[in-house]
Design goal:
It is a single chain. The chain is mainly α and 86 residues long. Helix content is 77%, strand content 0%. The protein contains four helices and no strands. The mean pLDDT is 86.
């Protein structure tokens, strides 16, 4: 139930709140929940709605999607490392 609520809050933040707040909420959810793929999918939708070509990133539209996909992988790998060391 808490995961669904987090998904809805993140969805509302992507549509109506500043982008930096959506980033903070998504990172928090990715750290708190295990494999929060919903955040990555919502940033894909955000890129479809608001994305523009970025010359810095080789003229691709899906910059935040790619970044958050990589962030999710790194966070999950770090979670495993931290659990093993305890």
């Amino acid at each position: 139930m808490l995961r669904i609520l987090a998904l809805l809050v993140l969805l509302v933040s992507i549509f109506y709140m500043p982008f930096w707040l959506s980033i903070i909420l998504a990172l928090t959810a990715m750290i708190y929940f295990s494999f929060f793929w919903e955040g990555v999918i919502l940033f894909f939708i955000s890129d479809l709605l608001y994305g523009i070509k970025e010359e810095k990133f080789f003229n691709i539209f899906f910059v935040s999607f790619i970044i958050f996909f990589l962030v999710l992988i790194v966070i999950e790998l770090l979670k495993k490392k931290i659990r093993i060391s305890n």
